[in-house]
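Q: Hand in one record:
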Amino acid sequence: MFKEAVPRIARVGVFAERDSVSLRHYERAARTLHLSLESLEVNHPHPDLEAVFRSAAKARVNGIIMVGSRSINRYAKQIVELALKNRLPSMFEISTRVEAGGLMSYSADDAALFRRAAVYVDKILKGAKPADLPIEQPTKFEFVINLKTAKALNLTIPQSVLFRADRVINKKGEYQVASRQVEGEIGEAMKKKVNVLTLSALLFALCFPVWAQQPKNIPRIGYLTPSISANRSLFEAFQQGLRELGYVEGKNMSLNGELMKEN
């Protein structure tokens, strides 16, 4: 999709961990599309991302892909900003990066995943053991394009690509729902990333109820996130999922957001 949206792309810089399995899948896909990849490693605790982008420019990189992981995700905001500053089209594995200014993303519907996570919490509160709960495959995927970013990069996204998008952020920063749901093949690297990392993170972060001795002995649910403000829409999706199951904050449960501490 990235190549279709930006046909001029020839060399793509990939932010990924050195031993990332997903990186190998991207390499295979790149060979099929006759693209070359430049690994943009971020392994230092305090990386100089400006220098990374300067190196990318010297390598004639003309597009960026970010493969999400805990070590990479902490720099997502800077990567989005620097991609725009360096006028580089960008592709992400989570839609919130596009909402923040990235060009496009193709991933599981994040809001649907977080709403579904509430079902896991409900089962645990009713006595199920976390270890006995299966990891579910995502069933809904979405393709998101930010036309405001495209305009800033002086890009014209082909109509054939726009037609396939589930959501489009227009030039005024407003959301538009595309004319139809994207259905079809999902790249192996993206699917593995969603299955292994996204769902594992959800189980770790959301299936974490703690019973607290409160006046009515209501369950207290802990929600772990690197940034509540940056992931507000996902937090609200989780809250919506709880409400749909009959949970009312302060009445039959207490929800507490906590920031994850980096090592």
Q: What stands out?
A: The longest strand covers residues 219-225. The radius of gyration is 20 Å. The longest helix spans residues 188-206. The chain has eleven helices and eleven strands.
